[in-house]
Amino acid sequence: MNVLASKKAKPEIKKLSKEEKKLLFRKNVKRDKYLLLMFAPVLIYYLIFAYLPMTGLVMAFTQFKAGSGMMGLYTGTFVGLKWFIQFFNSPYAFRLIRNTFLLSFYSLIFGFPIPIIFALCITQIKNKYLQKGTQIITYLPYFISTVVICGMITNFLSPSSGIINQLIVKAGGTAINFLGEPKWFRAVYVISGSWQSFGFNSIIFVAAIMGVAPELYEAMKVDGASKVQTIRYLVLPSIKPTIVLLLIMSLGNLLNVGFEKVYLLYNSGIYDTADVISTYVYRQGIGSQNYSYATAVGLFNSLIGFVIVFTANRLSRKLTETSVW
Predict the structure, then answer these.
(1) 23-69: pLDDT as tens digits
(2) How far apart are CA 107 and CA 100, in angstroms?
(3) Radius of gyration (C-alpha) of the chain in whole angstroms
(4) Three-state SS for 189?
């Protein structure tokens, strides 16, 4: 009876007329006008640089001719899946997909846990000055230009004058041409990327850890839990949703290896391990002016990324009840 009474007591939602909806919309816009003005630049940016270029995806299914202008996107000869078939039949397809996947996979495996571990360590420092100083030092590399980072890597790893090789020679070894031998490129890419980004990427995890209620820490201390037990049974479960969400977002970029860094570090001698989809698209599109073919390869890359994100999100929602949507 109480359940029935409570159901009957629920007020009915009034349906608004079109005029009432318009008035409510104008009222909300007037109320939030300053917030909307702050959001406008972000919206304009994504419209111009993310959504408007999507109209050019039709190029992947047509024979686009350079110099035909915007109308050439829609007046070119329709070729269907010709460019996709050509890519998969090319001798470079497997190498490109393999290199792109492995660089991203290694970066994820070795680069994703480091910010979490660093955040756990930094929040355990009791000295506030030491904590802030350490954070600032680790944040700085993220704001250094990719060009500068690649210049530093080239100088440090130089076979003749690089500090790394000088240390190797002094230790009794022989100088290594890190950027000239294919087997070293992935290690150089992953290690330098992790070093540059782990401090900045830890900000979100530090904020999540700081959001854990102090009363829970006190309860763990009263129960006699050690620091390791506190991290294992309190901190990690508390930041689990944050970890899962960021992992799903990272999986979306699994095939989007940074073009600038690879392009600045690689050379034709190490294409076997360094050439990735983004650099191949650049050479085919800008270098060889095969715009339709390059667009098809880039579209394939984006579709694979979407499938990975969608699948990871569905699995996460079923297994952990945490998802992006």
Answers:
(1) 888 899 889 999 999 999 999 999 998 888 888 888 888 888 776 66
(2) 11
(3) 26
(4) helix
b vs e for 189-205, b when ≥16 Cβ sit within 10 Å of the residue's Cβ? bbebbbebbbbbbbebb
Tokens encoding 309: 């994100």
- DSSP label of 290: -
Q: Is 80 exposed, middle or buried (0-12, 13-18, 19+ CB in 10 A)?
A: exposed
The answer to whether the beta carbons of residues 274 and 99 sit under 8 Å apart is yes
Six-digit token pair at 314?
Answer: 């569905």
Structure tokens, 206: 């530090």
Asked if residue 315 lies in contact with residue 247, where contact means CB atoms within 8 angstroms, the answer is no
* Cα 140 from Cα 162, distance rounded (Å): 23
The dihedral formed by the CA atoms of 246, 279, 195 and 234, expressed in degrees to the nearest 10 = 10
Give the separation between CA 115 and CA 203, rounded to whole angstroms.
Answer: 8
d(CA 230, CA 218) in angstroms, rounded, equals 10
CA distance 89 to 98: 15
Q: How far apart are CA 74 and CA 253, in angstroms?
A: 30
Q: For the whole model, what pTM was predicted? A: 0.80
